[in-house]
Amino acid sequence: MVPEITFRTASLADIPALAELMPLSMAVMGGRVYSPKELEIVQQLIGVDRQIIEDGTYFVAEADGKIVACGGWSYRKKLYGGAGVAAAPAVLDPKTDPARVRAFFVHPDWTEHRLGTRMLKRCEDAARAAGFTRVELGSTRPGEPFYAKNGYLAMEWVTQTAPDGRSLALLRMGKKL
User: What is the CATH number of domain 5-176?
Assistant: First the structure.
């Protein structure tokens, strides 16, 4: 029997669990599409962004008290972020700017439960309620099919440099709400 899944706003107390989930999710999902060297770069770029948690726009899904998925949206001018990405606290204008969808990760044992899709809808609904009419994101390769399936269109490739100086291409994608 599948445990009940609950969604809630993430708190700073969740950071240790998120810091375990994110690299695990990327190791498995990213390992399917990235070379080992590319995966090393991605692992440097991911990480918990305290700002999005403090803003109250980051969510977690729990099963039996364990975080099994996370994802959020942001009203800040940071397209993507985590470890190795400098903070950009400037606030977006919902009348002219798209909100940002950020940092989606699902535990490999929970990929068959549509948690990413449910989390994405929660984020899009919250961004819409905040007055945004568009959303954008920077997707890693494992995320591209998921976001495309949910109506996101490819816009451009952007390069992100890791702390060790190596870089990786991310796909900027967007959607009208």
Answer: 3.40.630.30
**Strand order through the sheet with 153-161:** 5-9, 58-63, 66-74, 99-106, 134-139, 167-176, 153-161
| Cross-strand pairs, 67 | 62
- The domain segmentation of the chain, as residue ranges, is 5-176
End-to-end CA distance of the chain: 35
Going by C-alpha positions, the residue among 146, 123, 137 that lies closest to residue 170 is 137
Q: What is the pLDDT of residue 78?
A: 78
Label the pairing between strands 66-74 and 5-9. Answer: unpaired
- In 3D space, the residue among 6, 20, 35, 40 whose CA is nearest the CA of residue 119 turns out to be 6
Residues β-bridged to residue 5: 63
What is the pLDDT at residue 84? 46
Which amino acid, one-letter code, is at 161?
A: T
